Amino acid sequence: MRGLLLTLSLFNPFTFLPLTAQVYLDETQPLEQRVEDALRRMTLDEKIAIIHAQSKFSAPGVKRLGIPDMWTDDGPHGVRPDVLWDEWEQAGQTNDSCVAFPALTCLAATWNPQMARIYGESLGEEALYRGKAMILGPGVNINRTPLNGRNFEYMGEDPWLASRMVVPYVQGLQSKGVAACVKHYALNNDEEYRHQVNVIVSDRALREIYLPAFEAAVKEGGAWAIMGAYNLYKNQHNCHNEILLNRILKQEWGFDGVVVSDWGGAHNTDEAVRNGLDLEFGTWTDGLTMGATNAYDNYYLALPYKKAIQEGRYTTKELDEKVRRVLRLHFRTTMNRQRPYGFLCSEAHYDAARKIAGEGIVLLKNEQHVLPIQQNAKVLVVGENAIKMMTVGGGSSSLKVQHEVLPLDGLQSAPNSQFTIDYARGYVGDTVQSYNGVTVGRSIAESRTSAELRAEAVEKAKQADVVIVFGGLNKSDFQDCEGHDRRQYELPYEQNELVEALAKVNKNIVFVNISGNAVAMPWIDKVPAVVQGWFLGSEAGNALADVLTGRVNPSGKLPFTWFRQLSDVGAHSLNTYPGTWREGHDVIDEEYKEDIFVGYRWADLSAKRKKEMLTAHRSSLTAYRSTPLFPFGYGLSYTTFDVTVNGHEGGANVSVTVTVKNTGKVAGAETVQLYVGPNKPDNSRPVKELKAFQKVWLEPGESKTITLTASRQSLSVWDEAAGQWTFIPGTYRAYIGTSSNTNSSFKLNLL
Ligand code: BGC
């Protein structure tokens, strides 16, 4: 009898294949063999089950085979609090208060790939503790317009910078056995009408501007998952898009991971089956009113798909391919016994958050050495953003943190500081501080009028040595927030009036802009110091105090161009935003008319060419400025640097040797940037493009020599006719600078 039982158990009861060895459970076996072994043991129902969600953030495993459920979570700045099974409302757990890391714009502003690595590792440990196999992030959509409500979740405007930063984030996270789900693939560059926008873009801009960071995340970072975007490209939703998913991602780039739909981004069974979607999440379900036992059964890749297979409309070819990918994800994550332990809120995570924040803060202006704050100074802090938590709100990246140090608190507790601090509210923005049931618990309600608040701040400013205004945006709707874009480039809540009024009574105004986007600063000439303070997460106040007091010497550099006004931005000057509704108001076409000329590529474009483009696209704009307020790659320090080019080589690669010297009195870091463009710019490609950079730390008086190299591949252009990358040999011009605004250039011949 015993012998009979044993023999029976060696056969899969469903397929009757001999299953002598459980290869799929054997970690010494090659991944693909484990995948095939698990696949052939699975029933149709089990296969259908693992390719769609069973709750807001989980998909079932295969219990019979010991494959656990797969839990995922946002992303990308910390691990989102658990929500109820089928609702967005937080579940009210007591073990899900996390560390919030700085928003990804800040990470990009560090220009330090090592920061991205520790970001990914730390987040991976938090995810492991929370039982999450996959984090919904990082985001690498290109900053095309400063109105995009989600730019704070992305890594700026430049494909090279975003690529260099996304790769170590993905690798760091995945080194912990937690998958990155890189999002939102692709062309999700603004939020307004995100489900209906059909992006029209040239192949060249797609390849040269919008895809490289995704490509790097996949090919170099080895991302295990990618999230399709809500919007459409070539009239097909990107969660099941033949060109983007099947042709480019899977065939061309050889992606072997899972394509996850953005929540509610799947719309159609047939396209989902054929066009590359592997794992369906967040499709709108209406509880049990659809008459099924479980509304998740109604997902496009659930019962409708199963029925179609049973009726012979599909073979199991596509299904098996999806299941293979999901199984791979399991073996890399939930089934990976080598995964380390997870830690939530460890000291190391707070240290990482503070360090990344400190390195990402950008000093934009600092006349007469207003900063760092002098000892014994009488400091007046003004502004709602000095007392407002920024980790709650903004959409899916909202977090429930163990703690968040507010800017005012950070300054008040700054170590060894001997200045005195007074506070005035100055303006009221949004006092609602809750998101999906997570509330801040500290009221910032204010009943005074803006005139009263301004008057109080002005009175106090008269007595102060220095006034530090914490303003900018916040995570409320129509600010830096998912679901909509900003409605204006200007600062909200009468902040301009406040700054103007303060500047009249005190010459030492420091404006700390808290945001993920550039804003208009019409008062810039009246204010001696400006700091870009991003959304910095749990350690925000400490990191800001570190920089403002000089404990940390600022070294952040802008990951985007800071235009003076909206009409200076390519996308806006050409009237391409938000697009044109089609008849019926179902789809809005947004044509990226500025093409490859995004950000500094647009700013650099000759006036003549801009004019031609404006005319060709019938823009009503007649006057435009090309000099940004602050260029891409720009950021000051409390010390000064000399950058000298020692030598350069052409040939197969561009290679430039540079000596950087700290010529000031404090230690600091400078980021040397190599841009390359045609020797004689002719508008057929950007004047110059970032191709290499390196951040160099130097003690006072110290020098270091570094070599920056750009490969032929990185200098290639997308040949639309041939449908491939091509390198054009000839004479190029290389530029070395500490921002994109540099005159130091030289000719090089490339073969
Ligand atoms: C967002 C994604 C997010 C998902 C799950 C969507 O609305 O676009 O970025 O990961 O929700 O919260």
Molecular structure report:
Strands 1-2-3-4-6-9 form a 6-stranded mixed β-sheet. A 6-stranded mixed β-sheet has the order 10-17-16-15-11-12. The longest helix has 17 residues. With 751 residues, it is α/β, with parallel strands linked by helices. 26% of the residues lie in helices and 19% in strands. The protein has 20 helices and 28 strands. The protein starts with a helix and ends with a strand. The site of beta-D-glucopyranose (BGC) has 7 residues, from loops.
Separation of termini?
76 Å
Hetero groups bound? beta-D-glucopyranose
Helix segment tally:
20
Strand count, sense and barrel status of the largest sheet are: 6 strands, mixed
Percent strand: 15-25%
Lateral arrangement of strands in the main beta sheet: 1-2-3-4-6-9
Q: Mean pLDDT across all residues, rounded?
A: 94
Class of secondary structure makeup: alpha/beta
Computed over alpha carbons, the radius of gyration is 27 Å
Helix content: 25-40%
Give the oligomeric state of the chains in this entry, treating copies of one chain as homo and distinct chains as hetero: single chain
SSE inventory with pairings:
Elements: H1 2-9, H2 31-41, H3 44-50, E1 58-59, E2 70-74, H4 104-110, H5 113-129, E3 134-136, H6 159-174, E4 179-185, E5 197-200, H7 203-210, H8 212-219, E6 225-228, E7 232-233, E8 236-237, H9 242-252, E9 258-260, H10 269-274, H11 303-310, H12 317-332, H13 347-360, E10 362-366, E11 378-382, H14 407-412, E12 420-424, E13 434-435, E14 438-439, H15 450-463, E15 466-472, H16 495-505, E16 509-514, E17 529-532, H17 540-549, H18 570-573, E18 580-581, E19 588-591, H19 600-604, H20 607-616, E20 641-649, E21 654-662, E22 668-678, E23 689-698, E24 703-710, E25 717-719, E26 724-726, E27 730-737, E28 745-750
Parallel strand pairs: 2-3, 3-4, 4-6, 5-7, 5-19, 6-9, 11-12, 11-15, 15-16, 16-17
Antiparallel strand pairs: 1-2, 7-8, 10-17, 13-14, 18-19, 20-21, 21-24, 22-23, 22-27, 25-26, 27-28
Helix pairs in contact: 2-12, 4-13, 5-6, 5-13, 6-8, 13-17, 15-16
